[in-house]
Amino acid sequence: EYDGERNSEGERHGHGKARLPNGDTYDGEYKHGFRSGRGTYRFRNGAYYTGQYLQNKKHGQGIFFYPDGSKYEGDWVNDQRHGYGVYTYANGDTYTGEWFNHNRHGQGTYVYKDTGSKYVGGWVNGSQEGEAELIHLNHRFKGKFLNGNPVGHGKYVFDIGCEQHGEYIQSEQDKGEEEEEPSLLIGPKWKASEITKLTLWTPHGENPPSP
């Protein structure tokens, strides 16, 4: 069903309201028969999107409320989360940063609501990857990540004024009788090398402390 403006060709054009065969509804702007401009689309499952459209696709700025209570507010391109946006997850965690083809991708900050910890750094296709800082209540870790885990050299910086340098090593799995992919359960192990005073840290190595 459609209730709204049409152009001389009879196409939906201007402002209108539509009910789709599947029970979804749209209330907003049309151009030449397509949802284009600002509008609100309500899904039968309780989700809804309010924002900009271009030729029936979410495109521009918009907010999507998901059925589980999570929401995304930011840029859309061709129906995908793409550009810059903020996602609030059902558990209260948030991600603020860059998106590419619907995934967290680029630079972004993820805040864990339960602990107050936050990850600030690189993302690739939805996973924590690249240079990053993991900030906890009274200390932080600076280093590199791959597939959501820290890898290689890095350091812990403690608020009391010292650092612990070291590296994350992928631990060897015990070759037991049952080899049912135990590697999935074993995370990288931190191997500490030295404790130092605070230094300036860059991804390209330490700057020597001034004499």
UniProtKB/TrEMBL annotation:
One of its GO terms (cellular component) is nucleus. The gene is Rsph1. Residues 1-13 have a biased composition (Basic and acidic residues). Its main location: cytoplasm. It comes from Ciccaba nigrolineata. Pfam families: MORN. Keywords: Cell projection, Cilium, Cytoplasm, Cytoskeleton, Flagellum, Meiosis, Repeat. It comes from the Eukaryota. Residues 1-31 are annotated as: Disordered. One of its GO terms (biological process) is meiotic cell cycle. InterPro entries: MORN (IPR003409). It is found in: Cytoplasm, Cytoskeleton, Flagellum axoneme. Functions as part of axonemal radial spoke complexes that play an important part in the motility of sperm and cilia. Gene3D superfamilies: Histone H3 K4-specific methyltransferase SET7/9 N-terminal domain (2.20.110.10). This is Radial spoke head 1 homolog. The lineage of its organism: Eukaryota, Metazoa, Chordata, Craniata, Vertebrata.
